[in-house]
């Protein structure tokens, strides 16, 4: 911000960790905008108690490459993981079991049934949102170089919340039990 006649005011807002993304042997702090803040092993202060912890053993969120600070991953993945963590308790899920894989997208274990609950990708969460609201999903352009870029972060979060709420329903638990 320019303050006349001769001053420039700069405000710095540090990124807050939204997710701890575990890849092959490292845990990375990631902001809600998808930017890798740093390695948890180098700076343990990056861990926050409300961050989603995601196992990604194949580095899928980073296109198979080891991440490094400053690299950007898809923000919809981070926001969906965070929403799944928030919604997990009420849905009878184990938030410490959140995993991201090629074949199933996001998965989490159901505490009581021991069953694997498949949430899929942000695009699946967007489809859930559209199905439950009775509207067609917005048209999307999918960049070939970015995994799961099909949904906006807001759509991924809303859809993930609806998916978790569906997981908490009695009908769903009855089919798992």
Structural class per helix/strand content? alpha+beta
Tell me about the biggest sheet? 4 strands, mixed
Helix content: 25-40%
Q: What is the terminal separation in angstroms?
A: 59 Å
Total beta strand runs:
9
Estimate the mean pLDDT confidence.
79
Proportion of β residues?
A: 25-35%
Low-confidence stretches: 135-149, 170-177
SSE diagram, text form:
Layout: E1 2-3, E2 7-8, E3 17-23, E4 26-31, E5 36-39, E6 52-55, H1 75-88, E7 93-101, E8 105-110, E9 116-120, H2 122-133, H3 153-168, H4 170-176
Parallel strand pairs: 3-6
Antiparallel strand pairs: 1-2, 3-4, 4-5, 7-8, 8-9
Helix pairs in contact: 1-3, 2-3
Describe this structure in words.
The chain is α+β, with helices and mostly antiparallel strands and about 180 residues long. Helix 1 runs parallel beside helix 3 (about 155-170) and helix 2 (about 120-135) crosses helix 3. Helices cover about 30% and strands about 25% of the residues. It has four helices and nine strands, in the order ββββββαβββααα. The longest helix is centred in the C-terminal third of the chain and has 16 residues, at about 155-170. Strand 3 (about 15-25) and strand 4 form a beta hairpin. The strands form three sheets. A four-stranded mixed β-sheet has the order 5-4-3-6, with helices on one face. Strands 7-8-9 form a three-stranded antiparallel β-sheet. Strands 1-2 form a two-stranded antiparallel ribbon.
């Amino acid at each position: 911000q320019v303050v006349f006649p001769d001053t420039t005011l700069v405000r710095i807002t540090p990124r807050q960790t939204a997710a701890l993304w575990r890849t092959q042997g490292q845990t990375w702090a990631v902001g809600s905008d998808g930017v890798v803040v740093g390695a948890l092993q180098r700076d343990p202060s990056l861990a926050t108690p409300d961050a989603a912890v995601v196992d990604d053993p194949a580095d899928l969120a980073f296109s198979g490459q080891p991440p490094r600070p400053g690299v950007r991953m898809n923000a919809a993945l981070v926001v969906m993981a965070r929403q799944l963590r928030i919604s997990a308790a009420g849905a009878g899920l184990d938030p410490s079991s959140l995993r991201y894989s090629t074949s199933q997208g996001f998965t989490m274990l159901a505490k009581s049934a021991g069953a694997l609950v498949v949430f899929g990708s942000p695009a699946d969460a967007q489809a859930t949102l559209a199905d439950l609201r009775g509207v067609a999903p917005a048209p999307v352009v999918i960049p070939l170089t970015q995994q799961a870029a099909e949904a906006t972060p807001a759509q991924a979060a809303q859809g993930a919340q609806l998916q978790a709420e569906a997981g908490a329903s009695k009908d769903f638990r009855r089919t798992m039990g």
